[in-house]
Amino acid sequence: MQKWIMSGLFFAACAFAVVLMFTLPGKAEVAEENKPTMPEVQLDAAGAEATVKANCITCHGDQLQGGVGPSLQQEGGKHDAGEIFTIVTKGRGQMPSFKDKLAPEEIANVAMWLAEKK
């Protein structure tokens, strides 16, 4: 009787493993989820500056000189617009994600604006 129970549990575990193999996302799918796609937008410097003033100056300073967060005055020399978009969307280190606070188009506009600061 005990052999039948152990055999049944083994079979159930194997079946569960096979189901997981075919339903869990692969490396490519996970990588795609982790890298948000930046939408195509026309740069609106005034809009980007207003978004930054409303959301970023608390940590990055009113002149983007840094404070709690790093200086963004020469951010374009370190990251391109796509990288900045990913950082702002997902967050990084102590920086929170802004994907639930700002629209992707707003984040893209800010990313393009910051990418020009070299």
Automatic annotation (TrEMBL):
GO function term, MF aspect, one:
iron ion binding
Write the record's keywords in alphabetical order, separated by commas.
Electron transport, Heme, Iron, Metal-binding, Transport
Q: Which InterPro entries match?
A: Cyt_c-like_dom (IPR009056), Cyt_c-like_dom_sf (IPR036909), Cyt_c_BACSU-c550-type (IPR012218), Cyt_C_IC (IPR008168), Cytochrome_c550/c551-like (IPR051811)
One GO cellular-component annotation of the UniProt record comes to: membrane
Post-translational modification here is noted as: Binds 1 heme c group covalently per subunit.
Q: Report the residue ranges that make up the Cytochrome c domain in this protein.
A: 43-118
| Alphabetical list of SUPFAM superfamilies matching this protein | Cytochrome c
**Name of a matching Pfam family:** Cytochrome_CBB3
Task: Quote the record's binding site residues for heme c.
Answer: 56, 59-60, 95
* PANTHER family xrefs: CYTOCHROME C-550, CYTOCHROME C-553-LIKE
Question: Under which name does UniProt file this protein?
Answer: Cytochrome C
